[in-house]
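Our preliminary data section would be incomplete without showing what the modeling component actually yields. Below, a chain of 533 amino acids is followed by its predicted structure, encoded as tokens that our downstream tools consume directly.
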Amino acid sequence: MSGVKKKHFDLPQYVTKTTKGLYKYQRRVPPELQKILSRSKWEHSLGSNSGKAYDLAKQYTDQHDAEIAALRNPDTAKPREMEIIGTRVQARIASMTAQGVASGDDDTTFDPEARADDGFQNAIGEMWRRVPKAMELAEEVRDPTARYNRLVNLFTFAFGDQSRATVEGLPTFAPPSGGYDLRQYTMHKAMLTEALEALAPMPSQTPDEMRISALMETYSKAQGARPNTADGNRRRVKRLVAFAGDHGLEHYTEAILKRYRDHLVNGDPNAKPKAIEPIQAGTVRQYFSCLKAVWNWAADEFPEHRELVFPRVRMPKNNATVESTRWQAFDDEQIKLVWKLVSDAWSPDAKSKLSQSRRKAFLMAIRVLLYTGMRPAELFRIKHGDVSNGVLSIHHTKTNTPRQIPLAKHLADFPAYLEAGGFAAEMEAGKTSIVAGKVYNKPTLPETLAGSLTDNFVPIIRKGGITNNRLVLYSCKDTLVNRLSRGGCGDDVVRGIIGHVTPGKLRHYKEPLAQSVEGMAAMRRALDAITYW
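Predicted structure:
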């Protein structure tokens, strides 16, 4: 057969010669680049003159070597891919202009009814109206790269936005002047922008200090937020950044925040490296509460955000009652078991990664929590001098309201522990700890020590048979409240010990229990009467 190609082993690489004496250049495109280049191989006719054929083959080889290198280089791959897309779009424009009207045979769905005398500009000038349908068609394209390329094409034509693909000679069209058309135009562009961001996020042009993560830090400092509050805000913003990127506030549209709300409510079982668990409706409200606070603060603080309004996002309905969601108290047998479990796990002879001083600190902490109702982060700030004449002074509280309570007789050894260094010495010891192969050289924070106590406490009691997930370290406070109530203590005594303020206007007239001799005596009698084991 005269047309069959023969392989000549003395020919240059990628060159073949047919039985008719014609040279051809044939080279397969690397598999990982075939979708980007929209081809599986390069083919060129080189003619019948061997010298010219070899020169042309060398040029094609060099050109394609450079193309492959650029698309495999992380620093140049994305810009080069955008150039390729731009070139492809320009060719499309040329074809459409020559025809006098857009063809409408792909996902951009140019209007096939556009009048011939309006031509190309009329055809694409109203393309933004067909964005929803075009996006729906693009969803049928399974390959993310191919879908991205189609949506970039649509984005460039419909809105004249060349941030993702440069197209020379592309006409520009002003958006609608107002009314319903402008709102629809804005909504369609936001929809398409989000779809593109999901496939290939654009680097944010917002200065670092004006991005949500930095603004939250600045806001926390400006509000004088306590360390645990600032840390909570930081964790919540980190969750948003992981979902939608770290951008300026204006980036987080109503649509983005609604998807984020749904993400929090539903979780993500397919997330890597581990699944993201759904969170309760009440917690979702907390996540959004700190975001709203930053938006309101930024509107007052920065002129460029003066008109900034937090998007309307309806929060999920919280049908759970306080009783059904709060931490539970340990019953009489459970608290005995808890103490046995932690005493065994943190004894001097037990096999544990914790240092001897850390074990001692944690055992003391459990006892103090059960007789004070303090939060762990409050507890680890207690130092020598905070106990005087049988009274414990708690300076750092969640409500920023210091309080005093009598030291129960069951904690008679606590002052000596504090005088010997106590929790302050344990946190100072953090300077010598090894983190990532290096000496940490900083004291451990109270919040960090509290987190470590929780992380060690829960697995111990779960392994010991206490499997109710509403029984945790904070259950120590619920257990104290339960015992006080069972002992016949009134609400004033309970509030005085655990630090809850008097509700309503009575707060302005009622003397705190700790400020009277009788009140302090009543709290002391209540605490001394409690025996856990």
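Strands lie at 5-6, 15-18, 23-28, 41-47, 387-388, 391-394, 403-406, 434-435, 438-439. The first strand starts at residue 5 and ends at 6. Preliminary results of this kind motivate Aim 1 of the renewal.
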